[in-house]
């Protein structure tokens, strides 16, 4: 009897101890809201004084509320959960644009869409783009594709006039891109595309920071942005030799959506950076501290600080809005031009000659390529192409700090401040693609974000010789 | 049997709890609810704000209203107060460097701090950020400026240009060089400049930069120069004795920026009132030029010679 009891109590004790502990552990996931995703601000914006970031001033008891860098970013891009679909940016947000032809009363409108639209599921959200109800949301509750009549419901006062344009389900593609990005890309590339997601710190090379707008492997010249086609190729093939996998198994429209979202993130990062850069010279924390330090006596110091804050107030009120406008126009056009101007695509005028394997012609081409390689390439890539050239094995200066000083690590560093080695060409791993055309593009255009220059003046034949030589390196007797 | 039953039941409860623990209101991430707000291309936030002009003192860059004093020239010298440290050379004669036959045939001086007669500092940029004129009636376009790769150095070491003005980059050496620029707002370029190619490379900055742009050769990593593109002509570069001159400044109060490559901005708000010609000698103390610290890169050879 006692034995039974003691046995039972052992079980009971075990459960009584283990159970509540397990309960506490498992219940921690329940209830409560998961944290909202937030965009990370750039280093430049972090370096500004608070008033430049927020636009909020308090002087002599008076409060002034202007638009600081953060306010512009909120207005033009929003937050991950509240995205702004800004028509100025060349992003294919999705949604269908349309125009009111006739207003038939009682919420019925005859409309014309920009593209042919069959029946769609209703209700659908929509926004007025022009007219007196500009930026007002409404709902389309039914659509008749034959008569092109829609029935709308909304809180707008004026009957929409003829010619008022609207957009149906705006940002549909961006929303889809957001969801897919959060699912597939976020953990390496980060919520803001800053290349600092949770797994990023374990990876070498680091995931790309989109916010500079610099992309390495593209079909356009060094100084231009990347095209959608190039981003698509990267998604399809991944980047061999790095942790970027292939996303070939995504559907076509899914990968298109991710590409738009990445472009949007990149534009956001660039615009934030450049807006902050317009203010960092005078209104960064460092420069304010420097000014105050140069004055003697606390009265003088207070005066100096006050003067700087007042100048900032004037700047934010008068000149800065125009500067922000110009920056966003410039960024938009630089992304637009690579899609519209097909002459920007780097293509050889002379096709790669086809040689028979081991023919004398081929060997001559390798010889010529080797000669070209030895004139310049070996200084970084090494005489055998192993990436151990003398430039890769000296200390280089970090010029982005004042005064410039040596990097901690030997060798080159890329535009993101990470150490980078010249490619070991004997491995046969080509990150930007292994087609001869890809290697042609790396030589012709250089690789942005890295010290690799573009050989503008070499002839196509010379570059093809070099390409042949490079592609033969993995197979040379070592 | 009793044990098994207890274990099973507690196990079941734990499993159910485990499954339920994932529930919660969606927050960020792929499952969150996303709201879209469309905005038209042109927005009112880009317009100048109206507001009280009181308490805005401090003086901007534009000449104070109604002040029709005559324009003047701002000139003077920038001198060092204290003893400049000798920065030595970036490449010693005969040193093993890329293309040493050409590049280390002579030693290449370190041009980070060049001090001339009487302590005058060369290559200091002194400029206004904003154009003080309401309209300009200058004769543009300007002629192209020459920027040469010679003796594995850039000449000139410091250059001021107007936005849109062409910089003709050429290579007078028998070896290849490349030109890599790292501007803030303009496009960065990185192109090879072929030896003895008179056509060279054409470099244009479309936008004004807030501070001088670093220009480097990545093959010969000691080579560097600075370009400053501005929208207006109110800028000067000190000569080898530290002298500078900025002509035709409309009268008014100004805040000049003074920048030198050894330590960046010496001054961001150097105040000058122009009412006719103004001459100043600006003294820069050695700590503002950061003369301490390692100036030339360490050289370590990790591999055996090939």
Please, could you describe this protein's structure?
The complex is a heterodimer of chains A (478) and B (306). Chain A has 478 residues and is of the alpha+beta class. Helix content of chain A is 42%, strand content 12%. In chain A, the strands form four sheets. In chain A, strands 5-6-9-8-7-10 form a six-stranded antiparallel barrel. A two-stranded antiparallel ribbon of chain A has the order 1-2. Chain A has a two-stranded antiparallel ribbon with strand order 3-4. Chain A is globular, with a radius of gyration of 30 Å. Chain B has 306 residues and is mainly beta. Chain B has a five-stranded mixed β-sheet, with no helix packed on it. The radius of gyration of chain B is 29 Å and the shape is extended. The relative contact order of chain B is 0.20.
Question: Mean pLDDT across all residues of chain A, rounded?
Answer: 89
The biggest beta sheet of chain A is recorded as: 6 strands, antiparallel, barrel
**Adjacency order of strands in the biggest sheet of chain A:** 5-6-9-8-7-10
Shape of chain A: globular
Task: Identify the overall geometry of chain B.
Answer: extended
**Counted beta strands of chain A:** 12
Oligomeric composition of the shown chains? heterodimer
Largest sheet of chain B: 5 strands, mixed
- What percentage of amino acids of chain B are in beta strands? 25-35%
Order of helices and strands of chain B: HEEEHEEEEEEEEEEEEEEEE
Number of helices of chain B: 2
Helix content of chain B: under 10%
What is the largest interface, and how many residues per chain?
A: A-B, 121 and 92 residues
Low-confidence stretches of chain B: 52-66, 301-306
* Number of helical elements of chain A: 14
């Amino acid at each position: 009897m006692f034995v039974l009891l003691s046995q039972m109590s052992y079980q009971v004790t075990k459960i009584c101890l283990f159970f509540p502990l397990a309960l506490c552990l498992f219940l921690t996931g329940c209830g409560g809201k998961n944290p909202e995703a937030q965009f990370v601000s750039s280093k430049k914006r972090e370096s500004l004084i608070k008033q430049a970031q927020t636009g909020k001033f308090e002087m002599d008891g008076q409060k002034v509320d202007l638009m600081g860098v953060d306010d512009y970013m909120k207005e033009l891009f929003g937050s991950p959960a509240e995205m702004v679909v800004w028509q100025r940016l060349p992003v294919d947000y999705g949604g269908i644009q349309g125009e009111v032809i006739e207003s038939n009363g009682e919420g019925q409108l005859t409309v014309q869409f920009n593209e042919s639209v069959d029946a769609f599921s209703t209700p659908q959200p929509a926004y007025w783009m022009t007219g007196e109800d500009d930026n007002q949301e409404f709902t389309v509750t039914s659509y008749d594709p034959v008569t092109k009549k829609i029935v709308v419901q909304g809180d707008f006062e004026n009957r929409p006039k003829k010619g008022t344009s609207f957009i149906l389900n705006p940002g549909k593609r961006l929303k889809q891109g957001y969801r897919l990005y959060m699912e597939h890309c976020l953990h390496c590339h980060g919520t803001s595309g800053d290349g600092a997601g949770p797994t990023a710190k374990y990876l070498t090379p680091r995931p790309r920071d989109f916010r500079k707008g610099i992309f390495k492997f593209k079909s356009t010249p060094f100084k231009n942005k990347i095209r959608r086609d190039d981003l698509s190729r990267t998604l399809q093939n991944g980047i061999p030799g790095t942790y970027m996998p292939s996303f070939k198994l995504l559907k076509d429209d899914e990968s298109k959506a991710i590409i738009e979202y990445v472009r949007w993130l990149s534009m956001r990062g660039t615009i934030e950076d450049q807006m902050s850069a317009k203010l960092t010279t005078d209104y960064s924390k460092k420069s304010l501290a420097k000014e105050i330090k140069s004055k003697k006596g606390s009265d003088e110091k207070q005066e100096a600080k006050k003067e700087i804050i007042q100048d900032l107030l004037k700047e934010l009120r008068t000149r800065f809005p125009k500067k922000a406008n110009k920056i966003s126009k410039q960024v938009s056009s630089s992304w637009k031009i690579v899609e519209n101007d097909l002459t920007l695509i780097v293509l050889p005028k002379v096709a790669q000659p086809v040689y028979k394997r081991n023919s004398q012609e081929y060997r001559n081409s390798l010889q010529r390529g080797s000669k070209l390689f030895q004139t310049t390439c070996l200084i970084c890539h090494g005489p055998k192409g192993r990436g151990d050239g003398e430039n890769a094995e000296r200390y280089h200066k970090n010029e982005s700090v004042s005064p410039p000083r040596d990097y901690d690590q030997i060798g080159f560093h890329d535009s993101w401040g990470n150490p980078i080695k010249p490619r070991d060409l004997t491995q046969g791993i080509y990150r930007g693609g292994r087609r001869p055309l890809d290697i042609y593009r790396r030589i012709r255009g250089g690789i942005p974000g890295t010290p690799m220059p573009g050989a503008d003046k070499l002839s196509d034949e010379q570059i093809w010789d070099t390409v042949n030589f490079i592609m033969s390196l993995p197979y040379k007797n070592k | 049997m009793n044990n098994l039953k207890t274990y099973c039941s507690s196990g079941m409860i734990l499993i159910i709890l485990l499954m339920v623990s994932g529930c919660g209101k969606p927050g960020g991430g792929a499952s969150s609810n996303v709201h879209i707000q469309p905005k038209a291309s042109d927005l009112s936030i880009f317009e100048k704000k109206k507001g009280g002009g009181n308490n805005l003192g401090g003086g901007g860059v534009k000449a104070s209203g109604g002040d029709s004093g005559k324009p003047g020239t701002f000139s003077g010298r920038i001198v060092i107060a204290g003893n400049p440290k000798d920065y030595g050379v970036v490449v010693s004669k005969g040193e093993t460097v890329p293309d040493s036959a050409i590049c280390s045939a002579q030693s290449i001086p370190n041009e980070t701090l060049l001090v001339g007669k009487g302590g005058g500092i060369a290559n200091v940029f002194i400029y206004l950020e904003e154009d003080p004129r309401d309209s300009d009636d200058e004769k543009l376009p300007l002629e192209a400026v020459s920027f040469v790769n010679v003796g594995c150095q850039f000449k000139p070491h410091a250059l001021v240009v107007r936005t849109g003005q062409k910089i003709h980059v050429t290579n007078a050496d028998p070896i290849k060089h490349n030109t890599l620029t790292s501007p803030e707002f303009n496009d960065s370029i990185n192109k090879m400049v072929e030896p003895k190619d008179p056509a060279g490379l054409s470099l244009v900055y479309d936008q004004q930069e807030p501070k001088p742009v670093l220009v480097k050769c990545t093959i010969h990593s000691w080579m560097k120069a600075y370009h400053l593109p501005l929208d207006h002509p109110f800028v000067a570069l000190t000569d080898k004795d530290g002298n500078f001159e900025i002509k035709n400044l409309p009268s008014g109060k100004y805040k000049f920026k003074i920048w030198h490559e050894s330590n960046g901005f010496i001054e961001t708000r150097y105040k000058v009132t122009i009412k006719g010609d103004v001459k100043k000698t600006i003294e820069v103390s050695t700590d503002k030029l950061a003369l301490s610290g390692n100036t030339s890169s360490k050289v370590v050879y990790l591999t055996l010679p090939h």
